[in-house]
């Protein structure tokens, strides 16, 4: 069923319940089968009331001595239950008339919950309640507890699971040889083991998701993700693109004109991209490299290859400052070779903008750099053959696709996405399996390592003195204001207050201010003054996070560093260390630090390597947050954990390729089982 249609019922499920189940993404019996337990509870034994231990879940059975609704301190249902060993108070703050009926004096009930010390002795708050007959048998296995939503109880979910296990085909779709090689149980066996654990099942292995049945389901989930992404990759290979063979004349001239030699990594990655561009199907490549590894030169060489063949290339960047930096750099490199570069941003004056649009529409200008203004309708690029997206994770799926759709005549442009947030290998393999990945793993020579210092905010005056000393020695410095997520206005106010405070404290220095609310001409003028050395200290919000390149700046101060993410701290730190002078990044933090804040600052203090920082970031934040899955179009894995289950990712990728080549029917059946009609999510 299409996920956008209003939910219809299925046998045993009416439209109203179907609507509630849809909130759990359960749209039919097949989805219910794969709705696996969150945890398990042990209802196989009874604990005498006298032996209950506070803080530990347990099940008791006893006679109801009495129950009443009391109104103080707030309305609640209170009951007293007794067995041969003692008495227990149970209370419910939210309750239904049906529960009151079950608690009629003389009734026999079972309660499951955590005991705690109360005013009248031991009590359970909101225990699970069930009426039982005297001598009624206990379950012989652990009881599954499922993720749920308002209006869908555990009993309903267990009943639906039992029906689905009876009615749905539990076909084995994985080759027996692979199951044997990986030591995994069959599909039907794994499902029964998870929904109805055997009496002798290991509770710890089930709880920790280390049981072979869990391993099987996690492997199949990873396999389906690989199949889907790999199919997207193959579908792109079947599309037509303009072949852009390497002509080498202008490329050689550009390399000859540079005041430095490209690194070995730049040469290697440049060759990979040049080969992709020469092919008649669209390139879809992710170029990742740490801060300062030279991605812009690689992008320039790719854009030049399009221009040498008479075709257009466009580069899109997320911020005005970064787009302008790219435009200036590309213009300086390429205009001496006779290649014009248009610059498009929302802030350009109407006449200048219209002139640029006309030059691009006529094909007179082959290269364009801009912000998301590039994807707005009036921009016509009739000969677009290459799209470069910098800091690609900052753009939503639709924005990236909109630029790609500018290609005309049924041809897809080649696409190069760049990121300075390195992606750990397992994550790249599972979330970017539909892309080819190139890595710039070498920094240009002459870069000095940046030293990182952690300083409590009570020593702010010492930091101000350090800035004064560095600037009076002829160096320049950045002072980055804290990130205040709740309020952009508050963030702006903080930047302005910090600027005023530092101007007063450092009268001998020339201090500039740049933030997101400034008009773009003002931002550009301030940045140009700082680049030219006309300002000593630049007070800024995170608008300077990427793309700012001032070799003489050797000191970075970040206030309230504990509020920033690791990727942001690493990016901001990378604004210094671009020249030959020793560079320092000072992270000012406020006490008390949260556990996460402490972890982040420890990681950034101990590591300068972006990949090591990315691995730690993945560990702290989890894969969904790390890749921005909410806007990337990649569905989050429900059961597999990319850190804990890294060993399953490689065989899942291998088996995906094997099935697509040798058993496409099994591949399709696996996709239907897990994705239903939702595979379109992966098409971006």
TrEMBL record:
Q: What is its EC number?
A: 5.6.2.4
Top-rank taxon, per record: Bacteria
Q: What are the Helicase ATP-binding domain coordinates in residue numbering? A: 276-440
InterPro entries from the xrefs? Answer: ATP-dep_DNA_helicase_RecG (IPR004609), DEAD/DEAH_box_helicase_dom (IPR011545), Helicase_ATP-bd (IPR014001), Helicase_C-like (IPR001650), NA-bd_OB-fold (IPR012340), P-loop_NTPase (IPR027417), RecG/Mfd (IPR047112), RecG_dom3_C (IPR045562)
Which reaction is catalysed here?
Answer: ATP + H2O = ADP + phosphate + H(+); Couples ATP hydrolysis with the unwinding of duplex DNA by translocating in the 3'-5' direction
Q: Which PROSITE patterns match?
A: HELICASE_ATP_BIND_1, HELICASE_CTER
Q: Which SUPFAM superfamilies match?
A: Nucleic acid-binding proteins, P-loop containing nucleoside triphosphate hydrolases
Keyword RNA-binding listed: no
Keyword DNA damage belongs to the record: yes
Mind listing the UniProt keywords for this protein, alphabetically? ATP-binding, DNA damage, DNA recombination, DNA repair, DNA-binding, Helicase, Hydrolase, Isomerase, Nucleotide-binding
Helicase C-terminal domain segment(s): 473-619
From the UniProt record, give one GO term of the biological process aspect: DNA repair
What is an example of a GO molecular function annotated in this UniProt entry?
Answer: ATP binding
Q: What does this protein do?
A: Plays a critical role in recombination and DNA repair. Helps process Holliday junction intermediates to mature products by catalyzing branch migration. Has replication fork regression activity, unwinds stalled or blocked replication forks to make a HJ that can be resolved. Has a DNA unwinding activity characteristic of a DNA helicase with 3'-5' polarity.
Entry similarity comment: Belongs to the helicase family. RecG subfamily.
Full protein name:
ATP-dependent DNA helicase RecG
Source species of the chain: Thauera aminoaromatica
Q: What is the lineage of its organism?
A: Bacteria, Pseudomonadati, Pseudomonadota, Betaproteobacteria, Rhodocyclales
């Amino acid at each position: 069923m299409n996920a956008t249609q209003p939910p219809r019922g299925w046998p045993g499920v009416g439209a109203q319940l179907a609507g509630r189940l849809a909130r759990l993404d359960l749209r039919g019996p097949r989805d219910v089968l794969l709705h696996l337990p969150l945890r398990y509870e042990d209802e196989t034994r009874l604990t005498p009331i006298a032996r209950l231990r506070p803080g530990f879940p347990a099940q008791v059975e006893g006679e109801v001595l009495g129950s009443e609704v009391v109104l103080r301190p707030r309305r609640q249902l209170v009951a007293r239950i007794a067995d041969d060993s003692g008495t227990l108070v149970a209370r419910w703050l939210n309750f239904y008339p049906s529960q009151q009926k079950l608690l009629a004096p003389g009734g026999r009930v079972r309660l499951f919950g955590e005991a705690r010390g109360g005013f009248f002795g031991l009590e359970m708050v909101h225990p699970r309640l069930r009426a039982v007959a005297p001598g009624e048998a206990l379950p012989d296995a652990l009881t599954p507890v499922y993720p749920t939503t308002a209006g869908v109880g555990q009993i309903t979910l267990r009943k639906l699971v039992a029906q689905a296990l009876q009615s749905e085909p539990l076909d084995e779709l994985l080759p027996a040889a692979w199951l044997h090689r990986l030591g995994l149980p069959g599909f039907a066996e794994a499902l029964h083991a998870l929904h109805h654990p055997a009496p002798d099942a290991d509770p710890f292995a089930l709880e920790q998701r280390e049981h072979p049945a869990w391993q099987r389901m996690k492997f199949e989930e990873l396999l389906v993700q690989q199949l889907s992404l790999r199919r997207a990759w193959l579908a792109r290979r079947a599309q037509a693109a303009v072949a852009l063979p390497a002509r080498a004349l202008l490329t050689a001239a550009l390399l000859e004109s540079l005041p430095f030699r490209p690194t070995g990594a730049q040469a290697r990655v440049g060759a990979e991209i040049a080969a992709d561009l020469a092919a008649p199907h669209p390139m879809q490549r992710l170029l990742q490299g740490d801060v300062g590894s030279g991605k812009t030169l690689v992008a320039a060489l790719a854009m030049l290859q399009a221009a040498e063949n008479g075709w257009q290339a466009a580069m899109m960047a997320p911020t005005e400052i970064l787009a302008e930096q790219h435009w200036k750099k590309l213009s300086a490199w390429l205009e001496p070779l006779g290649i014009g570069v248009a610059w498009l941003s929302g802030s350009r004056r109407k006449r200048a903008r219209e002139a640029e649009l006309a030059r691009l529409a006529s094909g007179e200008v082959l290269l364009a750099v801009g912000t998301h203004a590039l994807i707005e309708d009036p921009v016509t690029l009739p000969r677009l053959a290459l799209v470069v997206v910098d800091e690609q994770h900052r753009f939503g799926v639709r924005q990236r696709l909109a630029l790609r759709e500018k290609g005309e005549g049924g041809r897809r442009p080649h696409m190069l996405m760049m990121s300075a947030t390195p992606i750990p290998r397992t994550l790249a393999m599972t979330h970017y399996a539909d892309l080819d990945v190139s890595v710039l793993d070498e920094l240009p020579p002459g870069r000095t390592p940046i030293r990182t210092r952690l300083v409590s905010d009570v020593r702010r005056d010492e930091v101000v003195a350090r800035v004064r000393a560095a600037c009076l020695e002829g160096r320049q410095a950045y002072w980055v204001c804290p990130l205040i997520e709740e309020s952009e206005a508050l963030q702006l106010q903080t930047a302005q207050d910090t600027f005023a405070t530092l101007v007063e404290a450092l009268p001998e220095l020339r201090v500039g201010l740049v933030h997101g609310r400034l008009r773009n001409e003002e931002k550009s003028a301030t940045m140009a003054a700082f680049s030219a050395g006309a300002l000593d200290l630049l007070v800024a919000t995170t608008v300077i996070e990427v793309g700012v390149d001032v070799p003489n700046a050797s000191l970075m101060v970040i206030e309230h560093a504990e509020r920033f993410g690791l990727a942001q701290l690493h990016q901001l730190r990378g604004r210094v260390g671009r020249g030959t002078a020793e560079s320092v990044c000072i992270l000012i933090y406020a006490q008390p630090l949260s556990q996460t804040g402490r972890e982040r600052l420890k990681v950034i203090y101990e590591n300068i390597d972006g990949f090591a920082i990315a691995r730690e970031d993945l560990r702290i934040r989890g894969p969904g947050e790390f890749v921005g899955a909410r806007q990337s179009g990649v569905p989050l894995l429900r059961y597999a954990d990319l850190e804990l289950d890294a060993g399953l990712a490689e065989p899942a990728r291998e088996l995906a390729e094997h099935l697509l080549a040798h058993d496409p029917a099994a591949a399709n059946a696996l996709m239907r089982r897990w994705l239903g009609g939702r595979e379109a999510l992966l098409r971006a």
